[in-house]
Design brief:
The complex is a heterodimer of chains A (about 180) and B (about 160).
Chain A: H1 3-50, E1 53-61, E2 66-73, E3 79-80, E4 88-95, E5 100-105, E6 116-124, E7 127-128, E8 136-138, E9 141-143, E10 145-146, E11 150-157, E12 162-171, E13 177-182
Antiparallel strand pairs in A: 1-2, 2-11, 3-10, 4-5, 4-12, 6-7, 6-11, 8-9, 12-13
Chain B: H1 2-49, E1 52-61, E2 64-71, H2 79-83, E3 86-90, E4 95-98, E5 106-111, E6 124-130, E7 138-145, E8 151-158
Classes of the chains: A alpha+beta (about 180), B alpha+beta (about 160).
Amino acid sequence: MGLSSTLATVFIAVILIMGFSVNILVILSTTELLRTAVRDSVTLNIKSLHESIEIKNIAVNGSTGVITMNVTNSGEYSIFASKFELIDLILVYRNARGILHSLWIPFSQNGSSTPYWRVIRVLFRGEEGELVNPLVLNESNIRGAWDPQETLEIEISTGEVLNDSLYVFMWTPSGSKASIALSP
Amino acid sequence: MPSAMISEAILMIAVIVAASMVTQMFVVSLARIQYSSSWAAKDLSEKMRTSIQIIYAFNSSPTQITLWVKNTGSASFTPQLVKMSDLLLLGPSSASEYSYSEAGHGWSFKLLNSEDSEWDYGETIEVKLNLTDVLATGDYKVIFIVYNGVKSEYSFTVG
């Protein structure tokens, strides 16, 4: 074998090694990127599948525009108080003049301006008193969690006179939904 | 013997030149493959991390539709990215596409429960679609498509 053949073989070997190296590099970087994306996506999907709420015992005071209702965490995950702002509450109602309104209602524990929704108390198996992660909802110090099987008694204030007919929709931060309707 | 050495030398030079050319082409091709693979992977991972959900839509006036859209994915959106979204409205007898518009015909948005200017996980935006014509009674479907093609749709009735 002459020198040229040896040189050609060396070149081919170098090219092959470079090719494999680049391919491995690309595969590794791509795998890491996709692994993170899959992990994030699966985590959120699992959370969404196991997060569930149920609305019960709704009562409306039409003249003051205040609604009270009980919402139970029937899922497997706790929802921390710091995430209550990410809960969507939508109210569809007719006001005293019969005009249909759809309102997105923000969480505001101090209820400084209407509309708002806030937590009045927490019930565990029908009685006051939490066993785990007790909720503290002072204006300056929000902590604790809404744990599975706990029920929040919440107050919704619209700031206007309501008819007795309404719909309430509620979404958890991960997008699980509950709704309740009230008719006269 | 000297002629054999000269031939070997010429052959060696030819091999070096040819191999250099092949190597250069190979390296350039590999770089292109690496670049496109990285972009494809980045694009795919962005799509996997993106999830939105129209949680409610209704006609807030005869010429306006309001929808609330929740970010249910782990990807965050800057205001510029939100503005790159498209809104489709499929009506009983027509279909239209609308782009972002701060005033007049088109859609605009505001963040409802965000502490910064980004649309993050769990946060909701209010989108208002202003139309030129009055909405006829019937069934409608709105489709909100973000910049990378991930979409959510919602059906509602007017009248």
